[in-house]
Amino acid sequence: MKKVTKMLLLASMAAMFVACNDSNDNIIQDTSTGGGGVGGDGYISSLTDPDFKATDLHGKVNGSFTIPAGTYKLTGRLIVVDGATLTLTPGSTFTADASGTTATSVSVEIMQGGKLNAVGTASQPIVFTSSNKKPGDWLGVFLCGKSTLVNAATGARDGSYTQTTEIGDGLYGGNNNADSSGDLEYVEIAYAGARINATKEGNNLSLYAQGTGTILKNLFLHDGSDDNIEFFGGTANIENALVVNSADDTFDWCLGWNGKATNIVEVREATFTDITNGSGMMEGDGGFSDLASVPTDTSNMSNPTFTNLSVGVYNANGVDSSNGTSAYTLRAGFTYRTGCKITINNAKVIWADTAAKPVNGLIKFNDGTGPAVAAGINISMNYTGPNFIGQTGVTTSPDSPIPGANYNAQGAYPAYLLTNFGQLAFNSANNTGADKSVFAWTAYNFATKAPGL
After folding, report:
1. Contact (Cβ atoms closer than 8 angstroms) between residue 60 and residue 41
2. CA 39 – CA 309 distance, rounded (Å)
3. Residues facing residue 94 across a β-bridge
4. Distance of CA 232 to CAs 128, 129, 148, 193, 284, Å?
């Protein structure tokens, strides 16, 4: 998780969508009625605007209109500006037509005050994908809102702290915890996370200061080159999310995210070998991880609640695709640090015996940037997998429960005793995890790709 701000850029997409099957993504149906960019000014105010073209979709959306069902090619940044609303029709597919050096020029960006209404159905989801079907082919989808952020240095949350995304310089943050950037339901986003450098990367879905008014429900995010989903502060909630294969972190947050995540499934498949240094299935920070400072006040830091969570790790190592040489192993299954609190209820976790051992045990509660807040940690899970305590390279505290929790691996922070935690249980046999049946619309094969989960 490279924490500094992340912005976006969107572009064009081509593909025939048939029941979540990407086999016809190279077929573009031009549903535009405009002039295809002839005489355009870079702004899209309606479907008849010269800048609106299905086969070359990019520009600044400054009007409110609905794009009809069809297949569209994203060829650059598609930016919805303040006051505009872009509505997508169920069954539409948007394909990023970029890779390599052009991957960082394609994104879908929603600025503060703008809205994206992408409400698909179980039989006709809305799909954002890429023509090459490889992680990092484009930057991803970004929503910038006006919800509150925690000042990473002081720990204060008073509505005055704002930031700009590291890509695109989009402003986010404010004092409206009920803010909305739109509605995403039955949406698939894949193959994003392009990198400009080590600290400037996209994600499949980047959520900047999103408020409770933003609806995030029934999402399928997969094969991201950085994080699949990342919350930058805010209060947004998410429900029914299937998150599969992330080179960096599957689920990530910072700057005081305080939302609820309900019915979440995270999978790292046996065949997925793209990985970055410091990867994990979940990584939480109170501030930015790279500030390397402990906030003076931790009372307002990140404190999300996960309820009904299933996590399957079937491969925990690989090679960084950005250089093709650096080989890494997952740092930990779950990492919480820098004043981050966490509550996890009814979790089921499987770590396949064939998967590499994590460097720091199943759960890591601190590192060089600071400690997690022990008094705010409540985790209950049904764990199946090897015992990490005593494994080569795994540092755990003497009182660590099986399979291994790293309380004090680095620095001079106080070593946590198990009694400091509200609840830390790895063997809650009655926990069943998420309801996977709600993801039938994705056609994801749990039996073969996530056995036992």
Report:
1. no
2. 51
3. 72, 128
4. 21, 23, 10, 16, 10
- Strand bridging mode 171-172 / 126-130: unpaired
Q: Is 447 exposed, middle or buried (0-12, 13-18, 19+ CB in 10 A)?
A: exposed
pLDDT digit string (tens) for the chain, length 453 residues: 444 433 333 333 333 333 333 333 322 333 333 334 456 899 999 999 999 999 999 999 999 999 999 999 999 999 999 999 999 999 999 999 976 668 999 999 999 999 999 999 999 999 999 999 999 999 999 999 999 999 877 888 999 999 999 888 899 999 999 999 999 999 999 999 998 776 778 999 999 999 999 999 999 999 999 999 999 999 999 999 999 999 999 999 999 999 999 999 999 999 999 999 989 999 998 887 655 566 777 788 899 999 999 999 999 999 998 888 899 999 999 999 877 899 999 999 999 999 998 988 899 887 776 678 888 889 999 999 999 888 877 877 777 888 888 876 544 445 577 778 888 888 888 999 999 999 999 999 999 999 999
Measure the CA–CA gap between 415 and 395, rounded to whole angstroms.
12
Whole-angstrom distance, CA of residue 256 vs CA of residue 383:
28
Concatenated DSSP letters for 351-367? E-TTSPPPTT-SEE-EE
Burial of residue 178, with CB atoms counted within 10 A of its CB: 0-12 exposed, 13-18 middle, 19 or more buried: exposed
Is there a contact between 215 and 183 (Cβ–Cβ < 8 Å)? yes
Amino acid identity for residue 349 in this structure: V
Residue corresponding to tokens 């949406």: 187
Residue 67, CB half-sphere, CA atoms under 13 Å: how many? 31
In angstroms, rounded to a whole number, what is the distance separating the alpha carbons of residues 307 and 380? 10
CB-CB contact of 142 with 206 (8 Å):
yes
Tell me how many degrees the CA angle 153-155-157 measures, rounded to the nearest 5. Answer: 120
Neighbours of 164 (CB within 10 A): 16
Please give the single-letter amino acid code of residue 322: S
Share in percent of the chain as helix, strand, coil (round to 5): 5, 40, 55
Q: Are 229 and 205 in contact (CB under 8 A)?
A: yes
C-alpha 291/C-alpha 20 separation (Å) is 41
**CA-to-CA distance for 173 and 202, rounded, in angstroms?**
18
